[in-house]
UniProtKB/TrEMBL annotation:
Source organism of this protein record: Lupinus albus
Listed Gene3D superfamilies: Protein tyrosine phosphatase superfamily (3.90.190.10)
The protein, known as: diphosphoinositol-polyphosphate diphosphatase
One annotated Gene Ontology cellular component of this protein: cytoplasm
Occurrences of domain Tyrosine-protein phosphatase (ranges): 44-198
Entry keyword set: Hydrolase
Organism phylogeny: Eukaryota, Viridiplantae, Streptophyta, Embryophyta, Tracheophyta
Family: Belongs to the protein-tyrosine phosphatase family. Atypical dual-specificity phosphatase Siw14-like subfamily.
């Protein structure tokens, strides 16, 4: 049975369509590979002040983003050892790790060690450590307490301090954290220069 010219033309068009579809698929694959270059910030990432950032635990997918911050140091507030892959990232980028292990407890058994928060604040206030990022596991409670105490040193009113804390903690906000921040005595930190805002640096 002979194939008519019309049928031959239809076959040629089908082959061309299939070839075009394959080209489009290759282009889409290339686009996905290019999209891998996007910078992905860690969970709950935000700027606190000039040269000071906060977040949840950085994963390897966040490393490219962290490189754009030109960090000098990280303040880590969990008791667990820092993962090896994160330590390698710090080493290859010349970033210093300040590890202040604060246990995570659910209310009503929350115990925030004031002396550890004071030590972390000292590291945070030392501008030689900037740019710096503060993080715990989710960037909510321990990070929120440290940032709240920092805000007290900046003379923020408590309602503003708590608004910021609740913005990150959301439905997981803890009364005990807010009480800790409210009662935190900043007088022991008076010998440190107190940054008022990012505009004055």
């Amino acid at each position: 049975m002979q194939v008519s010219e019309v049928e031959q033309l239809q076959l040629q068009l089908q082959v061309q369509d299939t070839s075009m579809d394959k080209n489009i698929e290759v282009q889409d694959e290339n686009k996905v590979e290019e999209d891998d270059d996007f910078f992905i910030p860690p969970l709950n990432f935000a700027m606190v002040d000039n040269g000071i950032f906060r977040s949840g635990f950085p994963e390897p997918v966040n490393f490219s983003f962290l490189q754009t911050l030109f960090l000098r140091s990280i303040i880590y507030l969990c008791p667990e050892p820092y993962p090896e892959v994160n330590l390698e990232f710090l080493k290859s980028n010349g970033i210093k790790l300040y590890h202040f292990g604060i246990e995570s407890h659910k209310e009503p058994f929350v115990n925030i060690p004031e002396d550890t928060i004071c030590e972390a604040l000292r590291a945070l206030l030392d501008i030689r450590n900037h740019p710096v990022i503060i993080h715990c596991k989710r960037g909510k409670h321990r990070t929120g307490c440290l940032v709240g105490c920092y805000r007290k040193m900046q003379k923020w009113c408590l309602s503003s301090v708590f608004d910021e804390y609740q913005r990150f903690a959301a439905s997981k906000a803890r009364v005990s954290d807010q009480i800790f921040v409210e009662l935190f005595d900043i007088s022991s930190m008076n010998h440190f220069p107190i940054p008022f805002s990012c505009l004055k640096r």
